[in-house]
Automatic annotation (TrEMBL):
Chain ranges of the PEP-utilising enzyme mobile domain: 155-224
InterPro entries given in the database record: PEP-util_enz_mobile_dom, PEP-utilizing_PTS_enzyme, PEP_util_C, PEP_util_CS, Phosphohistidine_dom_sf, PTS_EI, PTS_EI-like, PTS_EIN
Role: General (non sugar-specific) component of the phosphoenolpyruvate-dependent sugar phosphotransferase system (sugar PTS). This major carbohydrate active-transport system catalyzes the phosphorylation of incoming sugar substrates concomitantly with their translocation across the cell membrane. Enzyme I transfers the phosphoryl group from phosphoenolpyruvate (PEP) to the phosphoryl carrier protein (HPr).
Catalytic residues of the enzyme: H189, C503
Gene: ptsP
Localization terms from the record: Cytoplasm
Protein name listed in UniProt: Phosphoenolpyruvate-protein phosphotransferase
Amino acid sequence: MIQGIGASSGIAIGKAFVLPNWEWDLPEQKIDVGDLAREFDRLYEGIRTSKVEIEQMKDELREAVGPEESYIFDAHLAILDDPVFMNEIQGIIQRQYKAAEVAVKEAIDHFVTMFDLLDDEYMKERALDIKDVGNRLLKHLLGAPEITLPSDTQPFILIAKELSPSQLAHLNPNHVLGIATLAGSTISHSSIMARALGVPLVVGIESKLEETIQTGDMLIIDGGLGIVHLHPEQSLIDLYTGKQIMQSEKKQQLKGIINFKPVTQDGKEMELSANISSLKELDVALSSGANGVGLFRTEFLYMDRSRLPREEEQVEVYRRVAEELGSKPLIIRTLDIGGDKHLDYFELPEEDNPFLGYRAIRICLDKTELFKTQLRAILRASHYGSVKIMYPLISSVDEVRAANALLGSCKKELRAEGIPFAEEIEVGIMIELPAAVVIADMLADEVDFFSIGTNDLIQFTLAVDRMNEQISHLYEPFHPSVLRMIQLTVEAAKRKGIHVGVCGEMAGDLKALPIWLALDVDELSMSAHSILPVKERLLALRQQECRSLFNRLLQCRTSAEILALLELKPSEEQKAEAFPDIFKS
Ligand code: PEP
Ligand code: MG
């Protein structure tokens, strides 16, 4: 048994597929003069293979979506014939005696940096093309095989060193029974995505591994307990199969409350919404009876591609989500990259503290064209549903005003172009920095709603990097300081009469529910899989009792004391009283 950390609950039983490590290992030594011809041959062979591959992809894309998108590959083919690019590579091989792959890497870096410096969108796109083609060429020179996942008919348990959000975005959840990663944290975006997709995940097993896991090894993943069983005995497989059946029966049972209004015993109604990061997560959200989408993490739309999504492409996605939700609200959060979320084609600076660095609204207020493209797309989609805009990582009134000024100019442009949008679109902000909590009353004057991002708020309040395994025990959602931060925010919103929700992972934590009820929070937005369990508990609770409990929580001086009070569960009688048809016993 390997004890890791449970990051997404559920049980998976199946064979392992071990994802290879995809870091380019470039040769350091110089080549001999006598090897020059061989390096040139390797380079030309790599170019030929890359061209064949690109032609194939072009044909496939043309078949799938028509000729328009496939033209992108013509640009890639042209780069491989471009004399300036090729001369640069050849020059590095010939004059500096470097291996072909090193020359290709240096040429890519040279052109990408040069084009990036130009303040010209077209040239920036060309830089992305060079990077994309260059990486393809590198892959062939290094002989790195494609990542081929096992075929559709054999679902597997994925084992990886670490999984980035964009790698996870590539995976088809129907083929992946479960995941275990050697590193990772429960609050990383990959973990959040795994929960949203309902894929069991255990992270941080590296230090506990006594033997390496090989592709084909039999495994059991227990995402709730954070355990991986390697080569389990048949009796253990039977035991876990039984557990799996029980869990799916419980899920079935919860479906019985899908149409119940989320209201406590004494009449407090709470909106229960879903967090999504892609269209494919919307179905789960709707089938869990979500009130709407309280957080659409749009950055995933920017991943899994080789260039920034154009306005039209974004409109298409936002519009589809808005239309599928109909009159149900959809809160679209503007781009929140940086931290642990990267785009292959968007160079972020190397930073000592990326979570404190160039990210989210800070990038958007710097790269205003990128931001305006998204704002225009959201505005255009607002014509088709009940869309709201939310800015992440706000720390000051200035930032809100700057973002709103850009929103205003997008509105003006659309008006002039005669493109319809919701003139009165609501604008809100994430409250996820202590600075924002402290000036919440001032921020409330600028916006229509708040959504508390507990994931970041906890990390910044406690100064505990949410990705750092070594200090994960210090990441305490129920720390008294976090409780006070939350209280300050909700009370400021209430005083100013604006809507306040919670969209961090704590929103779906059953233990935290009495806190939200006591404070009279309006909305909880969470992974779709948590909606029904949270509703089940909500139906059994009384707001009045939660208020008394909260007063006692405020007296607690440690997380342990707070947790001890919150672990109290509603009695079976309370449950039976709340929904007698389901809990007949
Ligand atoms: C949060 O910080 O709580 C949040 C919801 O945003 P993210 O997890 O995407 O940073
Ligand atoms: Mg956040």
